[in-house]
Amino acid sequence: MAYKFYKMVFDIDNESTDVESVNDWMAQKTQDALFNPNGCDDCGKQVDHNIINSEGATIIKLCIDCYNRLMAEYNNVDLPDAVPKRLIFKNRGAIREFDVEFRVFERGKTLRATEIGVTKRKVGVIGEPNEDFDVMLNTLISRIEKALSIEYMQPDGYFKGDKAIGYIDYNFERDILEVFIDGKPYTWEELEHSVSAYEGFQIKIEFADIVDELE
Ligand SMILES: [Zn+2]
Asked: How far is ligand 1, taken at its centre, from the CA of residue 31, in Å?
């Protein structure tokens, strides 16, 4: 694998950025994974994608990185030298961490960031097959910074202003669909309280993929 793994630390408050290398740690992880028979057929890491034959049987199982490499070769796309797996932001005195997933597919590539911690914000970016990866990463970073800088909800569960953007996700434990705003889950009943304050107003409902930006 030609990937370098590193951790990036961003400080929104003073805009300083420093990059902490965790190559050694990842090298050890990869080494450990080589002994995992249930892992990726190429490197042993966690399986992300099964390639099946015409009968539906799995013939190759690959991790996300090996699958991306295969897709890149197949579609004649250059892979970036380095893909950060984790982005860390300092925001209003708190540390906010985001897992980053890079995916190459037939007609393009995506970067998706999912916050890990108490709040679970999600943002993403989509590019053409030969889109500059650094441009995509910078767009992702600015979208994360924007998501962290905005709060649509008040602590009492009512909307702060006249707009809110979030995403819909299924909660398997509670067996319900939830709406995440500011990275926090709300049930439809909870949102009903907030919406009731706008009786008689117009409402606009618009859907978009996580990798697209809603204004
Ligand atoms: Zn692999």
From this structure: 12
